[in-house]
Design brief:
With 357 residues, the protein is mainly alpha-helical. The protein has 13 helices and 2 strands. Helix 6 runs antiparallel to helix 7. The longest helix has 33 residues.
Amino acid sequence: MHMTDALLSPAVGGTMWALSAAALALAVKKTAGGGQVTGGFPSGGFPSNGLSPEGLSSGGFDEKKVPLMGIMGAFVFAGQMINFTIPGTGSSGHIGGGILLAAILGPWPALITLASVLLIQCLCFADGGLLAYGCNVFNMGVCSTLLAYLFLFRPIVKKNLNAKTITIASVVSVVAGLQLGAFFVVLETLVSGITELPFGLFTALMQPIHLAIGLVEGIVSAAVLCFVYRARPEILGGAVPAAPSAVSAKKVLAVFAALTLVTAGVLSLFASAYPDGLEWSMERTAGTAELERDGPVYAAASSLVEGTAFMPDYNFKNGESAAGTSAAGIAGSVVTVILAGGIGLLIRAARARKKPS
């Protein structure tokens, strides 16, 4: 659901940049200012993400989750490279990852992490426009990590955290977040005056196709979160389990790191060739998925991305190949670990300076 610059007017793009920047500034403040979750983890495990009463009152983010910001960001980056076919439609979709990140990291660090993923996709791989970056952060990040997670996922699992409630919460919140994000895409094109995409028809195509995509992503998210719950339940729930966790924290990180490399380097080769839900809707509304806009703002944004994208469209510049796709997946995952993890380290340093000596 990555929007391109041609779907927006400069005014709408700038406004959404401002809104997303404000949301990210608040996310950094909340993450940096959140107190330590009470209750230690002698085995070196992870702290709460804010589901427990302690996590809710304190902000729920702990320095021990900094490695998870990098690893889970890379995992979502790799997952977004795999488009899965929606049967009978000629369309495909990929995970957004917002609910998955929010359930593991908490909503505010999740927004920061997903925004990092989207920035890397834009600047390094020319996936999603620079003018449209604010829209993409809002549509894919704010709608899921903040709205859907806080108002749906967390209330469903808060009173009774188990595999059943995690599954229900995952599917419901992913679908809701994706539906909301898809509708904002339509609204943003409408306000931008994109006459090729009339509101009624565009909405009638965008919402059902993203409902199907959301159901698949919800099931995938539930499977991953159920694994985390069985391996290290305190990551999701915040309570120190009565019995020792089945898997060490380092092993959880190692599993996600391995899955990221396999997904980015191997499974990405089997991604569906069908257009994603947004492109599919555009083709049936405007007859093309590649609209064009002229003007200095569009030219400047395009020029900047052309200068930074070292592997546009997730492949080598001199031609497409399977090796290029794998290399792009692995390179993007590594850069995501560095950026998202680096931001986490900076936040940890800021929190350390705030602590009384």
